[in-house]
Each structure stands twice: as C-alpha cells, then as structure tokens.
Amino acid sequence: MSVNVAVVGATGAVGQEFLTVLAERNFPIKNLKLLASARSAGKTATFNGKEYLIEELTKDSFKDVQIALFSAGGSISKEFAPAAVSAGAVVVDNSSAFRMKEGVPLVVPEVNPEAIHKHNGVIANPNCSTIIMNVAVWPLYKVNKVKRVIVSTYQAVSGAGAWGLYELEAQQKAFAAGQPILKEKFPHQIFNNVFSHNSKVADNGYNEEENKMVLETRKIFGDPKIMITATCVRVPIPRAHSESINVEFERPITADQVRQILSKAPGIKIVDDPANNYFPMPLETSNQDLVYAGRIRQDISRDDGKGIDLFVSGDQIRKGAATNAVQIAERLV
Fold first, then answer.
1. Binding site for substrate: residue ranges?
2. Pairing of strands 122-124, 195-196
3. Which of 145, 149, 278, 315 sits at 20 to 30 Å (Cα–Cα) from 222?
4. Beta bridge partners of 245
5. Looking at residues 186-197, what average pLDDT do you find?
6. Which residue numbers belong to the known binding site for phosphate?
7. Bind-site residues for NADP(+)
8. Which of 117, 119, 128, 197 is labelled catalytic?
9. Are residues 62 and 189 in the same domain?
10. What tens digit of pLDDT does each residue of 20-56 get?
11. Residues of the binding site
C-alpha cells in the first residue's frame, strides 16, 4: 500500500537522511511533501531522481498526509505535530518533545515493535545514543535479565546537527593553515579535544543526554527498575557514535554466550577480532544501519560471572535517527 508522506525539517541533516533511507528501502510513497522553515521554502531537493519543491511548514501542510516524519527540533514538533495528527497523519517524531509523554510509544523496532500500534497519532523516535545501546543490550536482556548498565559514549559532532560538522571542519582548516581556531556553537574547541556532551547539566549532576539514556531505556524496555548510569562525551569524529558498555546480569553469563546471542540479533554485526586488534570503529559504521559490537569480554572486576564489557558503534544519523524512524513507518503501512 502506497502512502502520502511528509518530511518535516527536510533540509536538515536527518531530514536529508530520511530521503536517502526512504529511497534505499523502497518505501511505498504515493505522494511526497517536503516541509521546512520559511527561509528554506522555494529550494529543491532530489528524491529518487525527481526534483521536489520545499514548502514552508504551516499548520495547513498536512492535508491528505498519512505519515509525517518530523526532524526539526522539539519546539517545532510541539507546535506542528498536533496539526498533522488532526489532519489524519501518524507522526514519527525524532525530537525529544514526546518521548517521555504518557501514551506515546517510544520505539526501537528491534526491541519493542509491538508498541507501534498503540499510538494515538504520535510515535517517538528515541535519542540516538539510546537506540545504539539498546539494539545491543536488549537481545541480552531477553536471555538473561540485565540489572545494571554503565555506559560511556563517544559522540560524533554531527549528532549536534550539520553545524557540528561545519565547526569541526572549520577548526581543522584553521589549524592546518596556522590560523586561530575559533569556537562558534560548541562550548569548547572540538578539534584535538574531547569534552562532556554539550547539553545542559541537570540538578542530579547528569546532563540531558545522560538522563535521556536512563529514562528512555526504562520506558523502551518496560523496566522502570533497570539501573543505568551514563557519561556522554563529544569527540572530534564527523559521524557515528561509539559506546563502552558494562552490563550486569541477573545470572552468570560468559563472553562466548554474549557473542552467540548478539550474532543472531537483528541489527547487530559482530566485529570482535582480538588477534588483529580489530573492533567496532565509527569509520566503518558511518553511512550504514548496523550496530557493530565487539570487545566482548568478562568483567574481571567481579568474581560472580555476572558482568560483561563490550564496545559498540553505530551511525547516529541513520540507525540513531532516520533509519529507526523509517523502520517504524514501515510497520505502519
């Protein structure tokens, strides 16, 4: 069944990736509408070899639209998603606006696809770091319940938006030319540096990204008691987030058992070659949809056999955003 689709935020990094993923996956589109801010209206974008005019987003933009893919920021989602729903569309929203709202499914299709059809017009796409972690942790959780997760992230600059890429590139060029390195939007120089994720630190001492990973995972897993602590860091990598994950299980488990479970899990590729020191890298996970998992080893800090360490990497613009949303949309048609 072909459907009428609108892409909101069509000129942004994720909006452009929506178009790439929709084309690659042969999503059944009858009519496509590309929506963006007034300053982008009148520009064009190409989809499947055809030029489409970008229209200004208004509350009247959604007539006859059946699926609306939103990636234009939380304030835009809050303002315009209700209009899309009122017009009869199902909104798949990539912002944080509705993720923790009661009654709004928060979905990673490899984890909780059954939640998709419980929507009331809006389905939320989780945070990119949450998605990448959950694709790897959930298959383990199903076999041997996970009690606690300690995760540290290594997050690419494009996770902040296209401007993150521009800022890293500008600083690289300035350094190469012997010119002063200027900060624009990031709070610190990102070239030759790493720093705590550039989101607001809450009263509990955790920044927004870290709190998202905790709260969203509990909702997605349907387990309010799972213990999670996160440290999120921005690194000078263009694309693809990586994460170091320590998992505590309810029962003892071996590294070989974890490797076997993940080798059969959807959305995962095992990259775990200690002899050649070859493990997941953002260079190899960029521009594709699988989450790579490796460095799978027993946690030697405990003697009960219930701890495992692993390292994962995944493209936060694709699986962490656009692809996850399109996978949700595929289950709606």
1. 155, 208, 234
2. unpaired
3. 315
4. 151, 310
5. 98
6. 99
7. 11-14, 39-40, 158-159, 316
8. 128
9. no
10. 999 999 999 999 999 999 999 999 999 999 999 999 9
11. 11-14, 39-40, 99, 155, 158-159, 208, 234, 316
Residues 280, 156 within the same domain: yes
Contact 69, 18 (CB under 8 A): yes
Q: CA-to-CA distance for 277 and 311, rounded, in angstroms? A: 13
Backbone angles phi, psi at 74, to 5 degrees: -60, -40
Show the beta-strand stretches assigned E in 235-315.
241-249, 268-270, 291-298, 307-314
Structural domain including 258 reads 130-316
Give the domain CATH number at 202: 3.30.360.10
The string over 69-95, giving b where at least 16 C-beta atoms fall within 10 Å of a residue's C-beta and e elsewhere, is: bbbbbeebbeebbebbbebebbbbbbb
Tokens of 314: 């995944």
Distance CA 118, CA 180 (A): 53
Token code pair at residue 259: 């490797």
Please identify which of the residues 119, 197, 232, 241 carries the catalytic annotation.
241
CA 272 to chain centre: 23
The pair of three-digit structure tokens given for residue 121, joined into one six-digit string:
């017009």
Are residues 56 and 135 both part of a single domain? no
State yes or no: is 232 an active-site residue: no
Helical segments of 124-276, H only: 128-143, 162-176, 208-221, 255-263
Provide the domain count of the chain: 2
- The CATH number linked to 28 is 3.40.50.720
- Three-class SS of residue 38? coil
Is 128 catalytic? The answer is yes
pTM, whole model, 2 decimals? Answer: 0.96
Q: Which residue has the tokens 């613009």?
A: 317
3-state secondary structure of 284: helix
pLDDT for 161 equals 86
